[in-house]
Amino acid sequence: MPGAAVRKLKSKGAVISLVTTIGLIAAIVATLLGAGFFSQAAATNDAAAWLWTSTTGELSHVNGDNGRVDIRQPVPDAKGHDVEVVQTDNQILLRDLSTGRVNAIDPATLQITGTAETPPGKGVNMALHDGKAFIVDTVQGVVRQVDPVSLQAIGEPLRFAAGLSGGVFDNDGKLWFAVSKEGTLVSVKPGEEGKAAAVDSTHGVAEPQHQLIISVLRKGVAVLDTTGSQLTTVDGQDVRNVPVTLGGSAIMPTATDSTVPTITVTDGRRVLAVDGTSVQEIPVPGDGPDLGAAVEWWGRIYVADNATDKVYVFNRDGSMADSLDIPAGDGPIEMQANDGFLFVNAPHSKNALVIDEGHKVKPIDKGVGGVLGAEVPPEEKKETPPEKKEDAPGAPRNVKAVPGDGKATLSWDAAPNNGSAILKYVIEGIPGKTFEVAGNQQVYKITGLENGTEYRLTVYAVNALGNGPKAKSNPVVPTASVPDAPKSVDAVAKPDGTVEISWPEADGQGNKITGYKIDSVGAGGASQPVGETGGETKLVTEPGKLAYGQQFAFTVTAIAESGAASEPSPLSPTVVPFTKPGAVQGLQAPTVSSQKGQAQASWSPAAANGSAITGYKVTASNGFNQTVTGTSATITGIPDGTTVTVTVVAINQAGEGDPANTTAQAVGQPTVSISGHSANTNSLTVNFSASGNGGDLTCTATINDKSASGNCGQLTIGGLRASSGYTVKVTVSNAAGSAEATRDVVTDKLSGTVTCKNYGTGDTATYCNNGINTYSTPSQNGNSKGKLQHGTRADALCKAGGDKELFAYGYNNDKKSSLWIKINSGGGEVYIPWVWFNLDSGDNTGLLADC
């Protein structure tokens, strides 16, 4: 129920949105595979909600008090399955829309206690309250009480006109639903001690075949007649009718923890808050009809705009109180109320919000917390839909009237809505009478006509922009000479998107039967003509004529040669049309930069088209072939640097859908070239160009035993000797391999002079006449390498500390130091005390590296 606010009531039944629903599927799976995770989940506090993330197939348990994710759990095989769940403290009912199976779950043990089979797809609702349970088949109009543990039927079911709306308990334990075909709101009281349920009250709230929407409140129930623009609230004996101005399609939350009904007019972007008989109209900023059902929460109105990823918050007087951002990817924004908190979830992204009773908002990242889970793929940015031009509707098409005994049945194909939803159809042609029917109705039976009198009926559509042109039917003359209806109807959904409808020949009661007319009934009482035959007892619908994934049942009317029609046949079994899935969206396959020969494909789910997607087949032109259940796959075995074509196809019961294609490339071999270098006396900086060709690149420069790593463009190696030649090697590596480049380099020259001059007298001391000793090591105890005379020039290489301090007392400016300089003298490298060797750098030894 996207956009619905859902309450969790202690020991009372409550509908839970798909957000919480998927968590319970996960619980069942965990029970079968080992319940350790969900034992932990069961111990979490009540002020929390399970929030679903479809992009990762993952459930997050969010604590409302602190807004944190306590647990994250991938749910096996839950992607592509829509699920509905209701629960109390003592029992859980779960319905998988893909299979129609209902499971009863004991929340204490999370074991399945009973099962029941229903038609798949939307159209069957479940309800729980204080040990009472119902399964409501809205298409067939069957309301069945069942044991909440075993799901065995209790007593005979209650039967109503096909096409119900709702099926939700109120706080007093009454089950409420609307019968659109009769224009009534009905409450049912559950049977006690094995006795059958019974109708408790019936309220006429609308003309027959008006579209009705119900919303169970904290106290009482509200029903909206969208065709007649009237809201009726029922609270015990207090029944109020409040006119409302809609002018567009309207939605309401199925249930809400509020006493104020809220109506969202999606076409007009307005919210109507109805307090008693007072209607507060609140305009919602923006454009387009993509709004969720507004929720009243502690004096404020929250409404989601699914097109802009915002939740607007209004004060009750209509003024804007806040605007909340919640990036939602390509999906809706859902709201549910649990134990004093309003949870706002974007199931197609990792984002959610939790809002307390004081309207304090805590943002939630569902991709963090817990110890389980997967990386959340990037959220897709929504495209702004093109501007829609709106106008009054066109004329209904294929209008046909069929006579019966004192009646006529009028049917038509939907009128073009011209950008604004059809609100209702208006039927004229009976003197003194006009009939208004819901915009989802395309079949209407008019009774009380005179047999033998000719009638010419017209029908026109109405939307927010006005009335469309009238379309005339054929002349129709009611008659008492009518055939019987077929006694039964069968329907089978086919994998190609068609439905095969068949029936036995009808008894003409003396009339020759020349054809059959087939109509459908859908959830909420929607009806439309499906087709006609010329006497054949089988009809195959066109692919896509009936919405995929929706429940439908069918009636067949026999047509006599005179044109007279029988009553409709009994309803067929319910079927769900389906076909092959659509193409996946947003397919991309970027290079895995850290791995050899890999690309990571990801996509958004394909349209299931009425049948759950069982997997995605991923192939690539290098021979890769894998079927996965998620929405990502790692393509392997791609040759280095090669581009391949990646194809993804969704699979469901009907087969493979349309392919989606993209290209992917593996990491290529890296390349490197040295473009230049610069040097000083003790270091070298090398400049180079390197390419990882899609891979994560590691770069290293090496000279002998010295190296530097990091920047892939420039590296500096220190600790080099001055006045020296080297070969620098640059190595670059990625997952596919490595490459090298070398260059010969020379560090800057730093020369000096052997000096033992007496600066006091200006004379060369006798001590220096024989020269200054040089050694093989920085010590006067080392091997002597000869003498150098005063004034000898030499290139300095590096410096080293000696074993003792030397003092040029009276000579060479009284230098005192234990430092030695390695110099290049006579083609050999020797050490000389620094106190006897003056560097050209102003004697700055900091320009020399350590030896």
Automatic annotation (TrEMBL):
InterPro entries: FN3_dom (IPR003961), FN3_sf (IPR036116), Ig-like_fold (IPR013783), Striated_Muscle_Regulatory (IPR050964)
Keywords: Carbohydrate metabolism, Glycosidase, Hydrolase, Membrane, Polysaccharide degradation, Repeat, Transmembrane, Transmembrane helix
Region called Disordered, residue ranges: 366-407
Fibronectin type-III domain residues: 392-482, 485-582, 583-670
Keyword Protein transport listed: no
Annotated GO biological process: polysaccharide catabolic process
PANTHER family, per the entry: TITIN
Protein name: Fibronectin type-III domain-containing protein
Protein species of origin: Actinorhabdospora filicis
